[in-house]
Every structure is written in C-alpha cells, then in structure tokens.
Amino acid sequence: MEPTNGGKVVFFLILSFGIFFIGGYALLIVLLTGGLKFYFPWLIIVIAGVLFILSHLFFRYVPPKLFKWSVIIWFVGCLLAVGIHEGVKAYHNSFETLDNHEVDLYEYMPFAPNSKLAQLEGSTTWKLEEDVPIIDGATAFYPLYAAFAEAVYPKGEYDVYESEVMANTTPYAYENLIEGAVDMIFVFGPSENQLKYAEEKGVTLYLTPIGKEAFVFFVNASNPIHGLSLSDIRSIYAGEQKNWQAFGGPNERIRAFQRPADSGSQTALEKLMGDTRIMEAPKEDVVMGMGGIIEETASYRNYKNAIGYSFRYFSTEMVQQKSIKHVEIDGVPPTEESVQDGSYPLTYEFYAVTTTKDDPTLNAFIDWILSDQGQELVRKTGYVPIR
C-alpha cells in the first residue's frame, strides 16, 4: 500500500535529516583536512543534488526525461570536477619545493655519531661543566650553534627539539626568548612584530653580531635570467612587474613566492622593500591541528617561472638543491668573498640575542663565540665571520 502524502513528507524529512547529518560530518572532515577551497563547495553541491533526487523520488515534480538528464549531468559534472581538481593538484605537487629537501637536523645534533658539525682541531679555550644556557634559533643556524654547544657544553644527548640546544625556527625562537623559556637565540634581526611583542612584555633584546650572511634570490635552473637589480626585486614583489619578459626572460608570468611572517627571510624581504608594500603571496591551505584551517604563505615551489628567496648557507650547504640557481644582485653573485668584502648588496649580520647583559655565563659564552675559536666555527660551518 502506497504511503499517504503525510507519510511521504515524514519519511522524506527523516531521510533528509540523515543526509544532512552525514553531509555535515563530511564537511567537518573537509574543514580539518585542508579541502576548504574545493571539497567544501563540492560537498554542498553533492548534498543539494542528493536531496533533489530524493525529493523527486517522493513527490515526482520533474518530467521523467528532464529528471534523468539532470541526474546524469550532475553526476558526470561532480566526477569531472574531482578529476580536474586532483589532476591540477598532482601537477602542482610534482614541482620540487625547498621543504621537500628539508635538512635532517638530527644529522647536526651535538655529540651524535657521524655528526656533520664543524669541529675545532684543538681543545677549546673555554668550557661549561654544568647549568648550561638553553639555546634556540633559526633552522639555518642550528648547525652553527650546535657546533658551539659541542665545543663548550658537557658531552650528552641534546635533542633537536627538546633539550638545552633546540631549533624551533626564528618566530618561535624569539617567542621562547621573550617568554623566558630560553636564555639565548641565534637568529637574524627581529621583525617589527617581534620588537613590539618584546616591548609589550617589558623585555629588552640585546643583539650581538657574530657573523654575516647573504640574503639570496633564486629561480629555476632553466630560467635564462642570471641577474636582477634591487629595483627589479622591489618591482617584482610589489606586483608591478609580472612577466619575465620585462627582465629579458621568457614570456612567462612571474610566480613570486614568499615566506611566513616573522621568519628571518621574510623579515629580510620587508627590510629590502622598505616602505614599498609587498603584494599578496601565493597561498595554500594548511591544517593547524584541531583548530581548523588557516591561509599561510606557500612554500617555494620550483616552477620554471618561479622566484623565491632564502639565505645562502641554507640554500647551498643544507638543502643542496641543484634545480635552482642564485641570481646576481646588481651584478654581484652571492659568494663568501662578496659577503666578506661587502660588495654583495644584500649582506646581513646575524646575532646571538639575549634579554640581559648581566649574566656572566652568557657573557662569557658570547665572548668565546667572538674569539678566534668561535669565529673559526662560524667560518667552518659555512658562514662569514663578523671579524
């Protein structure tokens, strides 16, 4: 016996509630797994389509032929959309990123077997026996300050992420120092946000220069561009020049990648740009635990038309990426010699940063870093000594 109209409505509402429940759960999963831009609207279209089909099966308000073709077009369209999206995504992911070649910091851990750390030939002139300072810093400087630790700290196990010798990246290192969780960090100079945060916390940052490094820009190795001027860089990152043809390159749109806010390299770009506003960067969806999705600057992806930036040591010694090449800036290549003599225009000091000048242990540690032995480790690691 066919159900009454009232029964149909009740049954339809029950099934619709089930579809909404399953669809809502699927949407939540999408939100937590980074599919907000495509799969969230795609799922809404799928849920709407299923509800349309269900309602027609109950109430028959669309001509059979039109209903049939509507369902076919909807179904094929949904499948095609997924296929195209995943194809584009696979193509995008086929290009190398610097993160794909991220260095294994455990290879630089102090006192680790077969460590890659630079070492002194003789015994050190200064040693710590106990109550060692907790140090942190930028990823690119970990091989350097881990070498300092191996030279002067007592032998032991110093985990990369949970010990007295940590590497938590520039933003977190500054945060840890300002919060008092660490005693000293090894980084480039602070960003405006980091200075403001220190001021809010009533903390003074004391910066001691211990070495110099080149801020470098790189392109795909097949890009015929070998050099750019500082004004060229500014025009690219301001969004004024958008095609490589403007610099004698191919007729290709420039993909100008950036780094996350408050990282050492992004702060360096901001200093280079001065008062010129930096254009919006390429972005990707990034999952942040159970907190949902945020938009974050995409990692450099080595498209043939891409440009990115980092620091010389990281992009040559640690990553050893052969499919990118550094570009000359104002006709000067970023070499150890050009950094040492100051001819490379984007040469920056890096620092040992503390929040006090009154700690005798930290002062003695910094004095040793600035001594011949400490500066020898700076040079042997691959950086340019400050002296």
How would you describe the overall organization of this protein?
- The chain folds into 2 domains: 5-93; 96-387, Periplasmic binding protein-like II (D-Maltodextrin-Binding Protein, domain 2).
- It contains 12 helices and 12 strands.
- Mean pLDDT is 89; it is low at 288-293.
- 42% of the residues lie in helices and 15% in strands.
- The relative contact order is 0.13.
- The protein has helices at 5-33, 39-59, 64-93, 142-152, 169-179, 192-200, 230-237, 264-273, 312-318, 336-341, 360-369, 372-381; strands at residues 135-137, 184-187, 206-220, 227-228, 255-256, 283-287, 293-297, 306-311, 324-326, 328-329, 347-354, 384-385.
- With 387 residues, the protein is α/β, with parallel strands linked by helices.
- It is elongated, with a radius of gyration of 28 Å.
- The protein starts with a helix and ends with a strand.
- The longest helix is centred in the first third of the chain and has 30 residues, at 64-93.
- The strands form 3 sheets. Strands 1, 2, 3, 5, 8, 9, 11 and 12 form an 8-stranded mixed beta sheet that branches. A two-stranded parallel ribbon has the order 4-10. The protein has a two-stranded antiparallel ribbon with strand order 6-7.
